[in-house]
Amino acid sequence: NVYGTMESGAAEWVFPTNGELTSWENQLATQAAAGTTRGGIDLSTTMTLTAPVRINGDVFLRSGGRLTINGSGPVYVTGRFEMGGDSVLSNGALIAVHGQFKQGGGTQYLLTGPPASAGLVTFLVDKDAIIFEGAATGTQGVIYAARGGVKLSGSAALQGAAIAGGEGTYGQIKAGGGTTMTYPAGLLPSAAWLPEISGGPLAACSAS
What we know:
Elements: E1 2-3, H1 18-33, E2 36-43, E3 46-61, E4 66-77, E5 81-83, E6 88-91, E7 94-97, E8 101-103, E9 108-111, E10 119-122, E11 130-132, E12 137-139, E13 141-145, E14 150-152, E15 157-164, E16 172-175, E17 180-182, H2 187-190, E18 204-207
Parallel strand pairs: 1-17, 2-3, 3-4, 3-5, 4-6, 4-7, 5-8, 6-9, 7-10, 8-11, 9-12, 10-13, 11-14, 13-15, 14-16, 15-17, 16-18
């Protein structure tokens, strides 16, 4: 199920080139390293991070994990980012993940910062660069698979905007099962952190 306001008459979207994406990722990594640099996170309790932060490794949020991100600037993860169990992510900054982002069933992702500066981007070349599955819920805001696709399955609920920037079949948004997607009117134009893309349809969307 897809909910929201149908908008028409927009110009064609022009996505960044691979070289531009590489430059953008490097810039985000440099900005993050200007703050705090730390190792990977395997969390089953509570933790607060203040952006900018560079995380060298993976981030795993397990049952009982409660991660809050405050501050301004990017949080750059060199590995993957996965939410499991009943974990909760409260994100007030821009999360940039080199690898895959996965929000598992029963988890909650809450965008607590303004959409102009807070959101999620991954740079993995994969059709499943961003995954929402099971009973994953929250207010996710803008999520952008810069070089890949987005997959929603089970009863996952996305409240925000999903962008799949991958080439060919990698640039698809696939929604199956009892998935719901709700787009708040005017969300994308407010996301100033996005690179220079503007206009019409973002990706192919298929339901199964």
